[in-house]
Structure formats: C-alpha cells, structure tokens
Design brief:
The chain has 398 residues and is α/β, with parallel strands linked by helices. The chain has helices at 21-31, 60-66, 79-90, 103-106, 111-117, 142-148, 168-191, 201-217, 254-264, 269-272, 279-284, 286-297, 302-311, 322-326, 329-333, 374-380, 385-393; strands at residues 12-16, 35-40, 69-73, 94-97, 122-127, 195-200, 236-240, 246-250, 315-318, 337-340, 347-350.
Length: 398
C-alpha cells in the first residue's frame, strides 16, 4: 500500500514569533509537513533561545518548540527588512505572529491588514487578552494568565495555591492557533478565501477551566484545592508505599470500592459499612476512607501495590518524576522517541501525538541556528549575492 504524503506538504507558513504560544503552534504545522519560515530578531533572535542551556547548550524551550523550521534573521525596523518579510508573506499560505499587542499593527502585519491584501492568506494573531477590552495592552506572560484565568486558584493544596508546572496558558493558545489554522485551511479549500484567526491566551485557558468554571457559574461553590485528590470522589488520591514511593488510585463507583476493600485492603466489612458503601458516604468520611487505604498501601512496595490494584481492576498510576517519563516503558514500547538535528548534534524528542495511519511519519526536522536559512531564503526571492552582502553589511539581515 502506498504511503500518503503528510497533510500539510506544500503549505508555507511565515511566523514572526517568540517564546511558546506561537512557536509551539507552528512547530506542529511543521511536523505535519508545512514549510515554516521563522523570522527572528538580529540581536539574539527569539528570546526563548536564551532561557537556559540545558539541551547540550541550547535552550530546552526553544528545542521543544522550534524543530523543523527555517530561521531567517531580519531587522523589521529597517524598511528593507520589512519589505523582505512582506515578500515572504505574499507567497505564504499562513502567517502567525505573537508580538506585543499593537506591535504587529504598527508594522502592518496584523491579521486584518494582511488578509485584506492577500485574500487567500490565513493570518493568525495570538495575544494575551485579545485585541479589545481593558486588558488588551496588559503584559501577558504564561504565569500571569494562569492567575487571571483562575487556574492557579484551583491548583495546589488547601493551604497554598500553585501554578501549573507547565506553561498551560501558552500551550492552550498554541493548540487553538494550530486547530484554527487547520480549520481555516479547510474553509479556504471550499471558498478560496483565507481570513484572520484571533487567539487569546486568557480565552483559551478559560475554556480549559471547564468543569470548575461551569460548576461555579451554575450555582456551585468555589472548588477546593485538594492536591492530587479529587474534590468529589473518594478514594481518589496518592498514597505512600513501603519503599518510599507513591501510588495514585481512583475508585469511580461502589462496585470498585467493594473490590478494593476485599482484594486490596483485606477488609471486606468496609464494602457494606454505611460510612463507606457509597461514594457520597466515602466523601463525607474522607479522612477515615483515606486512612484505611493508606494503612493498607503502606505495607506494600509501589510495584506490589500497582500489581494488587491492577489485579483487582482498580485504576492506578505511579507518581512519576520527569526523569521517569523520559524512561517510561510505554513510550519506549510504542517507539515514540526520535532524534532531531541541531547545531550541537542530535537531540532526543518525542514523536508528536497525532498518528495518521497510512501517512508518512511526522517530519521532525532540525532545530535551526539563528539566521541559518536567511541567505537561501532570500536567494529564493530573487536576491543576488551583492544585494545580500549589502543587507548584511548594513545590519538588515544576519
């Protein structure tokens, strides 16, 4: 059977992007076969390049979000640099930017302006809070938006609210930008027209607030912070094991509770005890419920606890560290790891989670050095070596 091409082969994306939200969105487009031209500043490029040096000297954020792209370094404050960008956009299918609010409009690079000039173009504006409203020009870094969107208020322990351990607001905006581009391209295939796509980090993360938001809006109380426990189900928490590990288990219904009580806790009487027989009763007596589970699991190693729980048909998981995830047996068994190129040599990376049966494998290209593709890209626009030398001499390109 012949292998189908990647779905975005032949699509060109131009991105003026930085940090996570836009780069993560466009990296996924690159993984699916699109050509992504990343336009960066001359003085250091995307500032995420400088976040750390953990990836063999490169920044871990940058490696994660920017594989498979072409880096073109331009001074957009110079009219000649801006003209180069406009020429790139004229030949593109998609344009993505997440500059500070108002910066793109001042350069004529906002979605509305570009789509008016190029009707087939899909142009994406990603911002913290959207183009209008009292927060439009408020600084919007991931942790700030996590706070504004209420995520921090429902994350943590009863004593202390904490942020999510990943850039949840950036990732939410990236995922909606990614899906918005795909939807707009499908529509263009039908109508012949592209159009603007606007994504707000606040609106993306507020949508992800999901259950707590709807619970409160429709008459419920503010959800309690419960660590890794579940607010309305018991037992659903992490428990210490004899070897210093932790195992999380989840009992979803009363049948499972009976199996847990008999086969794991060794206390059949708890299955019929009215203080524990129903989920409502177990939640009302959560402290006693947790104590009964904790006493039993504390006599097993983590491996023994997992084995007993699985044999009893109880959902469970280890509390893995990030190091554990990098060595996770399921990821290894499914062959999810690849190597991508970079200026410092091959770097380990996960295959993207979209698996397209019958298609080529995701295109996991190299992580680009700053300005690595400037000359080749500009030559493709018809510029001569003399013109490139002049632009380089004048500090317009790198």
């Amino acid at each position: 059977m012949s292998t189908q091409p990647l779905p975005l082969e032949g699509i060109t994306v131009v991105a003026v992007e930085q940090a996570v939200s836009a780069p993560f969105a466009t990296r996924q487009l690159a993984d699916l076969g699109a050509r992504v031209v990343k336009v960066e500043r001359l003085d250091g490029g995307d500032f995420a390049r400088g976040y750390d040096t953990a990836a063999r000297g490169l920044a871990s954020h940058f490696v994660w979000c920017n594989r498979g792209k072409e880096s073109v370094a331009l001074d957009l404050k110079d009219p000649r640099g801006l003209d180069v960008l406009r020429r790139l956009v004229a030949d593109a299918d998609v344009f993505v930017q997440n500059l500070a609010q108002g910066a793109a409009a001042r350069l004529g690079l906002d979605a509305a302006t570009l789509c008016a000039a190029h009707p087939r173009l899909v142009a994406v504006d990603i911002s913290g809070y959207g183009a209008g409203g009292p927060y439009a020009h408020k600084r919007a870094y991931d942790m700030l938006v996590q706070c504004e969107a209420g995520l921090v208020s429902v994350t943590g322990t009863p004593e202390r609210a904490v942020k999510a351990g990943i850039p949840a607001a950036d990732i939410a905006a990236a995922m909606y930008a990614f899906s918005g581009v795909l939807a707009a391209l499908v529509r263009r295939g039908t109508t012949g027209l592209g159009g603007p796509v606007e994504i707000s980090m606040l609106e993306a993360l507020a949508e992800w607030l999901g259950h707590p938001l709807h619970h409160v809006m429709h008459g419920g109380t503010e959800p309690a912070r419960t660590g890794v426990a579940h607010a309305v189900i018991a037992p659903y928490d992490a428990y210490d094991t004899a070897d210093g590990g932790q195992v999380l288990l989840s009992v979803q219904n009363d049948r499972e509770w009976r199996r847990l009580a008999e086969l794991v806790l060794g206390r059949r009487e708890l299955a019929e005890d009215p203080d524990f027989a129903t989920n409502a009763a177990r939640v009302a007596h959560r402290t006693r419920t947790d104590e009964a589970v904790a006493r039993a699991l504390a006599t097993f190693t983590a491996a023994e606890a997992i084995a007993r729980l699985e044999a009893a048909g109880i959902a469970c998981a280890r509390i893995n560290t990030v190091v554990d995830v990098a060595a996770h047996p399921q990821l290894a068994a499914r062959g999810r790891w690849r190597e991508v190129g970079s200026a410092v040599g091959p770097l380990r990376a996960l295959l993207p989670p979209i698996n397209l049966g019958g298609s080529q494998e995701a295109r996991m290209g190299a992580v680009p050095a700053l300005g690595e593709h400037t000359c080749a890209t500009l030559r493709a626009l018809g510029m001569t070596d003399e013109q490139l030398a002049e632009l380089r001499r004048d500090g317009v390109i790198a």
